[in-house]
Design goal:
With 113 residues, this protein is of the alpha+beta class. 36% of the residues lie in helices and 27% in strands. A five-stranded mixed β-sheet has the order 1-4-3-2-5.
């Protein structure tokens, strides 16, 4: 089953304690404290689990205070932003490590300037 077809609760359980961030004003305040990992396409359930585990492993080497946010494609277009319980440094090194581990064809890591 593609991840975009999972219900919100299933996605939360999958990502171990994530919370959805829908407050636009608060989102603007957090911009510089987020590391965004944008998925280029919807993945099936097994593949998404594998990718999330690999990302988590990489982030262990770059522990920090920034919230890691996943942008997951929606079937209807656009993306769902999901804040995870992962915390990371914000740097080009982190972005490079994540993209190298899971593939630039799978994710794009957005590092705020």
């Amino acid at each position: 089953m593609p991840i975009h077809q999972l219900g919100a609760k299933a996605v939360e359980l999958l990502l171990h304690g994530i919370t959805h961030k829908n407050d636009h004003a608060r989102r603007r305040e957090r911009v510089s404290t987020e590391l965004v990992i944008r998925f280029r396409e919807a993945l099936d359930y097994d593949r998404s689990i594998e990718i999330f585990k690999r990302i988590q492993q990489v982030l262990r080497d770059y522990a920090g205070s920034a919230t890691v946010v996943l942008e997951l494609p929606r079937a209807s277009g656009g993306a769902r932003r999901v804040a995870t319980s992962f915390r990371s440094q914000i740097s080009a090194d982190v972005a490079e490590a994540v993209e190298r581990e899971v593939g630039r064809d799978v994710v794009e890591v957005i590092v705020p300037h």
